[in-house]
Amino acid sequence: MNKVPLTKQGAEKLRAELQRLKTVERPRIIQAIAEARAHGDLRENAEYHAAREQQSFIEGRIRELESKLSHAHIIDVTQLENNGKVVFGATVVLADEETGEEVTYRIVGEDEADIKAGLISVGSPIARALIGKEEGEVAVVQAPGGRRTFEIVEVRYE
Questions:
Q1: Considering just the CA atoms, what is the radius of gyration of the chain in Å?
Q2: 52/36 Cα distance (integer angstroms)
Q3: 51 and 117 belong to one structural domain
């Protein structure tokens, strides 16, 4: 598996989730399974089957997080030289050339992307159009709704 880019904050968030799953959720499910077993016949015990299903989900998520973190290439954007160029991890303020409306995005790894929070995946059309450009340049984005142009107003490394 290739290295997957991840911001420092994204890696910390995944580590926190992994820690919570291992120290809080896993013991809670083990306890729930033990209690359900104590009720007797497991064939018709809905609590037991629900707890086993939850356990399976949690164990799968733990394996997934461990794999992602082991294959992560963690990038701390604050350590990069601030030269105004759009790179992975940068926060970019854009002005829509048609409407003048400003939007702010941070370019992050696929696992961190959340458009509502202004976090866009490095593989998204907008991010691909922005990478390598500098403040003041115009980026043309092939969006599903058609072609859009954005001026790069500001690039921050935070």
A1: 22
A2: 10
A3: no
